[in-house]
Amino acid sequence: MEMSGTGKQGDYAFGLMYSYAHRFWNVNGDSVSKTEIQNGDDVHLMATVWDPETMTVLPETGLSVEIYRDDSLVSQEAIYPMLSQPMGFHYGANFGLDGDGEYTVRLSVGALPTRRSGAFQGRFSEPTTVEIPFEYSQQAKEEIMVKQMEDESGTPGAVDPMKMEMMPSSTAPAEDDLPGRVIGSGMSNDAKFVVTVLDTPPAGIDGDGQYVAVSARSRYNRMILPAMGLEGTLSRGGETVYEGEFVRTLDPDLNYHYGAVVTGVEPGDKLLLQTTVQPQTARHEGYETAFGGLMGGMEDVTITAE
Amino acid sequence: MDPLDDNLPRRQVLKAAVAAGGVSALSACLDMASSEPVPTGDPNAKPSRQHAWREYIRHDEHGNSQLPKHQILLYIIFDEDGQPSADTRLILEQALTGLDRAYEWSHKGLLHSIAYSPSYFERFDQSLPENVDLPRPTALSPFESPTFDTQDAVIHLASDRADVVLEAEQALRGEQDQVNGVSVEARLTDVATIDSRRTGFVGAGLPAQHQDAAGIPDSNPVPEASPLFMGFEAGFKGNQATEDYVTIQNGPFAGATTKVIANLRQRLDDWYDEQSFEERVTEMFSPGHADKGLVKGVGSNLGSDSGIDQFIGDIESDAKAHNRVGHAQKAARANRDADGNVKLLRRHFESTDDIGSDQKVASLHFPSLQRRITDFEDVRRAMNGTDLTKVTPAIRQRVNNGILEYIFVRRRGNFLVPPRRHREVPTPQPES
Ligand code: HEM
Ligand SMILES: [Cu+2]
After folding, report:
1. ipTM of predicted assembly, 2 dp
2. Chain A closest CA to B200's CA: distance in Å?
3. Which residues lie near ion ligand 2 (Cβ < 5 Å)?
4. Domain ranges in chain B?
5. pLDDT digits (tens, 9 = 90+) for B285-336
6. What range does the domain containing A73 cover?
7. Element containing residue A270 per DSSP (H, E)
């Protein structure tokens, strides 16, 4: 993968990368369909969007791409959120181009539909567009392919995440860095759910009581797993204390997470987490059977509060 | 019968001529066009509403309106600053009356109108009457940043005859001494500048003929029977407001309507190549339409109503069960008044204009008529389905969310279509 450039506009920073065309799996609910490389696909374009102030990656917004060559439109598409081992969360699609040379790529982001808390309240609420020059050569692309294959041979578990100097990676906070009191964690199909409890909900979230935040990340690389439907049941000695949705939320300290306000959490309480909808992100090869994917869904997780 | 229909290459040349414009395009077009005479008109026999089309155009066997095949939009700016002078009024009146005289008010002749923008009315100190709702155009989705059309006015020319819309445009530009045997007495371009010219076409056959435009995959997927690039019929009688309904009833502008015109780029690669017919029906109409097999082919079998009303209540459960929601299903939620009447009268047509470039790119000109601009805004916002993205993460800002993945709004303008009696540079409070 190669970095093409970055841009900044309004509340958003953008990074544009490309690689050779990839096949991937599209996810709609629990149905997963393979998108093969099409005739004429030259590159896999990837974009990341983040908050330049906190360097938090912004998943779940709409992203569209326009590609121009000398003012003439080459392509335009709404591109899909995706998970890959080296890149983590990104937006991407395969595109056909008009040969080697200079292109202009316009990346447009929509207002973030995800609930926001803390200092993120009111931010990321306008659409914006940046223009990033994009230099393409088939030869350079083929070199990426060779390098990639060398890197991948003989790596167990997941491929190491790429480090891109100019942009943040989409990792969730380490357990020790999460605010609040971590009460436990559980694993579901290579997704790790780390649960932390805050004494009060972050600013901007209604309700009285404690705030239970589920930070979902990939098992090996700690990459955020956004766009799931998550329901939870908190019980104490057989009595249900809370039952309901854990709402997709973006917070500067908790990062992307799923949260619910409950009256309180005590040691010994049981929290049952059910993924009603697996992460609605396309999967690159290597992740097609993780976090649901071709497995159809994700197992329930039960955590006993410490 | 329109003899143009039977000849595909000719159809193509005519449409290309409308897009290109100019005298040579017109003569190319006249060579090709039907030799059937075009009926002339009588200025005193025109309907009192400029937006009166329904009684004057073709209908299909179900009573659905068939929009004029060839259309041109001319966005104009008056040359004078401030309030328009008597001179401007006179020239405009002569120019429009010239068209009235040259052509019958019908699809065989010419339907034409002039509509005025909020910026035009800002030339005056007075404000518009209370009952005229004409805000400036604005972004209507959380993911669009259109350029706003704030020219003074837009002239809309529509006919089944390509040569007629072209010739009418030439008359307004003063590039013909006479049109359809009637002499041209005044030219619009003496008092106004044409800032932007947009063209288009609609009706079975034309989109299929123009699917070589960018935005449509190379597989030639647009059915010959489809009036639109996306492969379905639109504008069923039961899903459209009546002209009476969209007409302002009282005050100095009684007989007027408001008009929003958007231009949307269409990107149909994934629409056709990634999706099955059932998935297209799901995203265009509703999951219920696909489940019950209600749509055959381009949807003519729906008759005079898409049947969407029975699926509006299901939208949240559809989102959860099918991971997709339909375009018509979302829009219809806000498109009924308390008595169940439809609020918008959509008259969209296709184009290969790529405003600002010479490239041929599939797009849609979307004029919609409604009593208040706010009605359009409400419906358009309902079509965003932002609420449904909260119901399940499977419905995303643009993906699985009706047809939002495939359409990109580039322009929007808001206009008032005055009644005929006030069509020449009206003040905000004309004397009835
Ligand atoms: C390429 C763009 C579009 C295409 C191909 C398209 C096509 C269609 C089709 C096939 C239907 C169902 C049949 C019918 O009732 O006419 C429909 C319904 C509708 N569409 Fe669109 N549409 C497009 C864009 C828009 C936009 C931008 C709006 C803006 C508000 C809109 C508003 C509506 C409404 C209000 C309905 C009727 C729903 C009801 O029954 O109340 N459409 N459209
Ligand atoms: Cu990707």
Report:
1. 0.93
2. 20
3. A 82, 92
4. 10-222, 265-412
5. 999 999 999 999 999 999 999 999 999 999 999 999 999 999 999 999 999 9
6. 2-152
7. strand A270-277
